[in-house]
Amino acid sequence: MAGHSTSPTSSVPDRVSVETHIERLRKVLEPALRTRQTEHLPLDPQSGNGDQAVTAGRISASEVIAPVPLPGFDNSQMDGFALRCEDVVDLGHSFSLPLAGTVPAGTAAPNLPAGHCVAIMTGAPIPSGADVVVPVEKTARGFDVLDAMERGGEVPVHFTGIGAEDLLPGRFIRRAGSDVAVGEVVLQSQEELTAAKMGLLAACGIAQVDVLERVRTLVMATGRELRRPGEPLGSGGLYDANAPLIRAVCQGFGHTVRTAMIASDVSADFQAALEGLLVEHHPHLIITAGGISAGAYEVVRQALAERGVQFGSVTQQPGGPQGWGKLEHPGGSAAVVALPGNPVSCAVSLETLLRPALVSLDPGCPAQRRIWVDVGEDLSSPLGVRQFRRVELRAHDDAVPTAVPIGGASSHLLGHLARAQALLELREEDTEVPQGTRREAILL
Ligand SMILES: Nc1nc2c(c(=O)[nH]1)N[C@H]1C(S)=C(S)[C@@H](COP(=O)(O)OP(=O)(O)OC[C@H]3O[C@@H](n4cnc5c(N)ncnc54)[C@H](O)[C@@H]3O)O[C@H]1N2
Ligand code: MOO
């Protein structure tokens, strides 16, 4: 019958460790991710065509050098009065200086006549000749003197409570280039754009940056039992949970995702759908779900084994059966990650296998978050398998949280996964795990 399994032409009989499989994924992902192109995008959406602007989390494709210093000029850190230390250093705690003018922010720096002071606002350029700013709080009348100055005549500013520390040259002056010097690298190649980096680039007057294009991921959920929302389930049908689940995870990895549902177990149907999607989406990564284990109608395995994709097993549960490889297509070369069909197996595999492999290759992919927990009840686990159990976390003040299992280990229990806060990791050597045992957990 069509789609009935023959022995896969490319299979690996052994069961390998989680770490070995992560390394296998790295090997297929690395060349595919290396083919990513550069996009030249504006920092400000208003200056380009709206949503085409760069966003935080993107990865730079080239170094950016500061074309200007930051601060751009010597300026005041305080609202106050700029003066010359040597004019007043011998005058004691209180003294007066005639006011020579005022400098708001955004104006040119005036000259400071000897023996005078100039009112200055935060961020305004330091008058040439001045070497200190005394905050307005240390004067008798504050900025009321500016009104008096406008009315004409010489206006004295009375400084009070002045100590030696107030008259150290450079006090409250932000020097040009003290934050960033001209020629300094403000963004490295392959660095993640954070909000602060974007602010820094903008402060340097940079309008556009080169970023790596996002990883384009094609997700294909397979199985003749699959239905879309609204379709009648019929006998043996079920709604596709995997495509939306995998899409959401991959979007969290920073990918641009196209999903497809292939409700067939016929290899030719899968192949035809794949060809169309390759041309349309030019993926760097293809993730399939279902059709890879020991059944008689393993559509993904049949279709991809003959194209060199390998299938094997990893000593973890859920997520034991796995496929990995490369696929050449008109737009380039894609890595293939074939996941088992059970939704929890997909979710766990993405977290324990694909994320660690991607993190080592793509600075935009957030790392796994691990914590220590105390196991909340007696558990058992098969020897030689790293078992991931869905758990709720109970916090205790200043103590390690308790991981309380939600349901059993089976990989169809999606409702339980959706309630879980973490995946408790039971080790390969664990068989009986008494309550209170300390183990690691991966936060979801
Ligand atoms: N004889 C053996 N049987 C199985 C083995 C084995 O080693 N020997 N491994 C089991 C394990 S572990 C897993 S995991 C599954 C993986 O099987 P497949 O990758 O071939 O997945 P399917 O058979 O297509 O589906 C498994 C299960 O998941 C449901 N499913 C599939 N796709 C979706 C979807 N998009 N949304 C919701 N649910 C989906 C499907 O209906 C099946 O119930 O194999 C075991 N069997
Ligand atoms: O490996 Mo399967 O993913 O346990 O159910």
How would you concisely characterize the structure shown here?
The protein is α/β, with parallel strands linked by helices and about 450 residues long.
Which secondary structure elements does this structure contain, and how are they paired or packed?
Elements: E1 11-16, H1 18-34, E2 38-42, E3 64-65, E4 75-76, E5 80-83, H2 85-88, E6 95-103, E7 117-120, E8 132-135, H3 144-151, E9 156-159, E10 173-174, E11 185-187, H4 195-203, E12 208-212, E13 216-222, E14 226-227, E15 238-239, H5 242-252, E16 256-262, H6 267-281, E17 285-289, H7 299-305, E18 310-314, E19 316-317, E20 321-329, E21 332-339, H8 343-359, E22 370-375, E23 379-380, E24 386-396, E25 399-405, H9 414-419, E26 422-426, E27 432-433, E28 438-443
Parallel strand pairs: 1-18, 6-7, 13-16, 13-17, 14-15, 17-21, 19-24, 22-25
Antiparallel strand pairs: 2-12, 3-11, 4-10, 5-7, 5-8, 6-9, 18-20, 20-21, 22-28, 23-27, 24-25, 24-26, 26-28
